[in-house]
Amino acid sequence: MAKQEDPKAPESVPKNGNGEKHGLRRRDFVKLVGGTGVAATAQVLAGHKLAAAATTVPEELVGSGKVIGPGPVPMTLRINGEAKKVTLEPRVTLLDALRNHLDLTGAKKVCDRGTCGACTIIVNGKPTYSCSVLAIEVADRDGKPGADIRTIEGLTPEGKLHPVSAAFVENDAQQCGFCTPGFVMSCKAYLDTHHNPTIEEVKQALGGNLCRCGTYMGVRNAVVQAAMSTKGGRA
Amino acid sequence: MADYHWPPTDKCKLIGRRISRLDGPWKSSGRIKYSYDVNRPNMLHAKMVFSPYAHAKVVSIDTSAAEKMPGVKAVEIMTEPGKEVFWEGHEVAAVAAETEEQARDAARRIQVQYEKLPHLVSDVNPSKAGEHTKQLAEQTDGNPDQAFQQAEVVSEGEYGVPVITHCCLEAHGQVAEWDGDNLTIYASTQNVSGMPGELVRAKIADSADKVRVLTPVMGGGFGSKFGADTWGLACARLARKAGRPVKLMLERDQELMAAGARPSMYAKVKVGAKKDGTLVGWQSESWGTGGPDAQGGAPSLPYVVRIPDRRVRHTTVLTNIGPARAWRAPNHPQMCLITMSALDDLAAKVGMDPVEMLQKNIQMTGQLSKTYSAELEKAAELMDWKKKWHPRGDKTPGTIKKGLGVSIHTWGGAGHASNCNCVIQPDGSVSSSLGSQDLGTGTRTVIGIITAETMGLPLEAVKVNIGDSKYPADGASGGSTTVGGVSSSTRRAATAALNQLLERVAPSLNAKPEELEAADGQIRVKGNPSRAISWKQACAKLGTTPITGVGQRQRGNDDLLSSGVGGAQMAEVSVDTETGQVHVDKLVAAQDCGLIIDLKTAESQVYGACIMGITYSLFEHKIMDEQTGRCLNADMEFYKLAGIGDFGEIVVHMMTGNGFDERGVIGLGEPPVISPGAAISNAVANAIGVRVPTLPLTPDKVLSALEKGAVA
C-alpha cells in the first residue's frame, strides 16, 4: 500500500529477512536501532560523508525486529496537515524525502550540512534545517503521530501568496531566489513568536540563512513589513 | 506610426519606476521549479567521482563493482585512463541509479587508480613557481623613469586578491531526458540559446533543433555557468544509456572545488605624485593565477585613472587551485583593489584626502570624468565624508578604530545580440518571446515593462516567454550584456507589432496610422483622446490571425543602448584592534547605468553587489594546502558568505536624469561589485593607520598588519 503512494521507491532492495546477515553487515548506512538510537544517530547522518563511517549492527539484534532498515521501510510523515506514506531507507534525510519522493521542492538543497538554511522548514513550530533531520526521526512511530511538518507549499493554496512571501516580493528580497523559500520559512517561524521585531533583532533571527546574490537589505525590510501586515490577523 | 525610440522618461508609465519582479511570487512561494527541483517520471539520480588529487594521471578505472550495486542503471567515464586531472574535484566518472543514496553508494565503489603528478597550489610567490610561470605582458607608455624623477612623493606597496569561488546556491547541473533522438535539458545555465549547439559539437545530439534547453529560473551563475560542462554531457550520455531521465547536480564540495575559481591578482606597485597630488608615474609588477591553462588574461593597470607615464609587467602562474571561470566583472575587482589601494597609500603619504586626490586627477579617467566627479560628490554627501574623514590612523582613544575609504570603477555593459518576437493576439493578449534567461537580475521583468510600456498596457496584460531555446536566439547572460540586448530587441519587436495593429485600426478611427498612439489601454488619436477604441476592440479587428513583430538588437551602434559606466563607492568601517575584526558600518554606492528600466530591480543589483563585495572583502578565499594540493574549505561552513547581520547600512544612489537617461540602456550587473574591495581595504587602512595588503581582511591579517606597523 505504501509503495503505491511512493513512485520513487527503489525497485532493487537488499534482502534483510531472517538471519540473512549479508544484508545487514558493515555497509554505508547508519544503523537505526528501534526508536532509541534515532536521536543519537541523527547528527552522524547530517553529513553524508560521515554516513560512510557505518557502524555494525550487533549480532544479537539481527532479525530481532528491533532493527529498521537498511532497506527501504514504510513510514508516514505528517506534512502540511496530511499524512503522507512513503517507503524510504532510514538514512534518507527529511529534505531528500520531501524533494525526491514527495515532489515538495520549495525547500532547497544547497550546503546539505546545516549551514546555509536554504532547506528550512517548520517542524513542530520550530524553524528546522531539513537536511539535518532524518525522515524516520519525524515519522509516525509506535502508533503515535510523528512531528507536524510544514513546508513552504503548505503556507497557502497554490496561486495565493502568504503575507511573508508578499513582503519578500514587495521589498525585492530575492534575486536568483534559490535561498528565498528558506528565508520565508525562517521569517514565518520567527514572526509566529516575535510580533514586532526591530531590524537588529531580524539580523539575529535570520542569521542562519545565507544568500549569495546579496538580498539582505530587502529581507530586512520584508521581515519588518511582514510583521506589520501579519500582526492584525493575529491580534 | 509609433516610434521605436525610448519615450521621454517623464512620459513613461512603467519605465524607470520601482516595479516588483514578475517572477517574485513564483520564487517566494517556493513553487517555481529550478533545474535542481525538476522530478521527471522514472528519473534516475547521478553522482560523480572526482579526483582527490590536485594533479594526477588516471591510470585505470574499474566500474565493475559499482555496476553491480543496487539500483545502478548506467555508468559513464568522464576522464579516460591516460588523461590527466588538474585540480582536486576534477570529474572522473559518473553513475546513475534509482535513488540519490544508491548513486552515492555506487560512486564510492568505482575504483580509480591515479599516478600522482607534481602540483602547485600556491600563487603568492611567482619566483618560487619556477617553470610554472609565463610572462604575459610588458608595456611602457611615456617615460616613467623621468616621471618618477620629477615626482615629489613616491609610494610603494604590495596588494592582492586571492582565488575565490562562485559558490552558486543552486549547484551546477541539469536533468537530461531523451525522447527518441530528441533531448530536453533542464539546465541551470546562463546560456539557453547557445547550449543546443554545444551539445551537437560534443556529438551528444545530431542536430541543434533536436535539443531543447529549459531554464525558467536559475539559482545563480555569476559567470560560472556559460557552458554545458562535462557533467552536462555525461548526464545526457547516462540518460541515453539508461533510457530514462537523469538528474546530475554537483554536491556542495564539488561545486566549490570544480565549478569555478576566480583568478587571483597580486602586484608590487610604485606610484608617484607632485606635492599637490597630481599623479605623475605608475610602475607595477603583477602576477596571478588563472588555473593550469592561464585563463583570465593580463590586467590593465592602473585601473580607471590612466596615469600617462607607466611601466607594467604581468606574469601568470600556472596552478592546480581550480578551473578559472569568469566571475562577475572579470579582472576588475582585482585591478581596482590594486590601483585604488596604491593611490590611497600615496594620498596618505602626500597628506591629502583621497577623494580630493581623485577629483584633482579626474581628467585622467577620460570621457567619463564628469560622471565620476558627480558620483564622488554624491557619495561624499551620502557618507557625510567631509565631516567624518580623518587623516590615516584613528587617533581617538579606545580599541575600536573607525575609518573611511573610497574607490571608483568602470564597466562596458553594451547589449549582446538579441532577437525578440512580440505577438498580439486577436483576443488582445500580448507576449514577448526571447531565448534569454533571468539569472535573478530582473531580465524577465525588464522585458515585460518594455512590452507593456510600448503597448500602453498595464504590466499584468503582457506575457514574457524566456528560458527556452525554442524562442528566438539571445546572447549568453554575462558581462552585463543582457539588459541592453533584450531591451533593444523587445522595444523594436513591440513597436513593430504595434505599428501593424495601428495600420489595421486606423480606418475605423478615420485617421492615418502615424496619427495614432497606444496609451492607457486604448488606441487613440494623438492629442484627441475622445477618438479612441479600447485595446480589446482594436485587437478584435485582427480577425483570426495574430500579429507578430520581430525585433533585433542592431549590429554595431544601436541607438537604444550604449556602453561605458562609472561608479563611486565609499566605505565606513570599525576595526577592533584587539581581535582584528573588521565591520563594515556603512557602504555608499553612487552608480550610473544609462536609462533605467526598473528602478527597483536595478537598486537590488547594486545592493546585492555591495553585499557580495563585502563578502569577498572580508571572508572569501579558496584556501589550499600546499602539501596535499587539496582545498581546505570546500563547504559553506568554512567558505564563508556574509550573513544578514554581518554588515551595517548600505546606501544606493542611482544616477538618473539629464546626462544619463538619454544614453539608452546599459548593463548594471558587474560595475557595483568592483569597488567594495578597494573602498573597504582603504577604510581599514584609514582606521588603523597601516595597510592590510591582501583581501580578505581577516582578523589574522589585520593583527599582523598592526604588529608590523607598530614595529616600523
Describe the protein in words.
The complex is a heterodimer of chains A (235) and B (712). Chain A contains eight helices and five strands. By secondary structure, chain A is α+β, with helices and mostly antiparallel strands. A five-stranded mixed β-sheet of chain A has the order 2-1-5-3-4, with helices on both faces. In chain A, helix 5 packs antiparallel against helix 8. Chain A is elongated and about 55 Å long. The N and C termini of chain A lie far apart (44 Å). The N terminus of chain A is likely disordered. Chain B is an alpha+beta fold and 712 residues long. Chain B has 17 helices and 28 strands. Chain B is flat, with a radius of gyration of 28 Å. Chains A and B meet through helix 4, helix 5, helix 6, helix 7 and helix 8 of A and helix 1, helix 3 and helix 15 of B.
Q: Secondary-structure blueprint of this entry?
A:
The complex is a heterodimer of chains A (about 240) and B (about 700).
Chain A lengths: L1 H4 L32 H8 L2 H4 L21 E7 L2 E7 L5 H8 L18 E4 L2 E4 L18 E3 L12 H8 L9 H14 L5 H7 L10 H19 L1
Helix pairs in contact in A: 5-8
Chain B lengths: L23 H5 L15 E7 L5 E7 L1 H4 L4 E6 L6 E2 L5 E7 L2 H10 L1 E6 L16 E9 L2 H7 L2 E9 L2 E2 L7 E7 L2 E6 L7 H7 L9 E4 L14 H14 L3 E4 L2 H7 L2 E2 L2 E9 L5 E11 L20 E8 L14 H19 L3 H7 L8 H15 L1 H4 L11 E9 L10 E6 L5 E4 L9 H13 L6 E4 L16 H24 L10 E4 L2 E4 L2 E7 H6 L6 E6 L15 E9 L5 E11 L6 H20 L28 E9 L20 H13 L10 H13 L1
Helix pairs in contact in B: 8-16, 12-13, 15-16
> Count the helices of chain A. How many?
8
Helix content of chain B: 25-40%
Strand order of the largest sheet of chain A: 2-1-5-3-4
Shape of chain A: elongated
* Protein structure class of chain A: alpha+beta
**How many alpha or pi helices of chain B?**
17
> What's the average pLDDT of chain B?
97
Radius of gyration of chain B: 28 Å
User: What portion of residues of chain A is helical?
Assistant: 25-40%
Order of strands in the sheet with most strands of chain B: 3-5-1-13-10-11-12
Q: What does the oligomeric state look like here?
A: heterodimer
Give the tally of β-strands of chain B.
28
Low-confidence segments of chain A: 1-55
Strand portion of chain B, in percent? Answer: 25-35%
Q: Give me the Rg of chain A, rounded.
A: 20 Å
| Span between termini of chain B | 73 Å
Largest interface (CB within 8 Å) is between: A-B, 72 and 67 residues
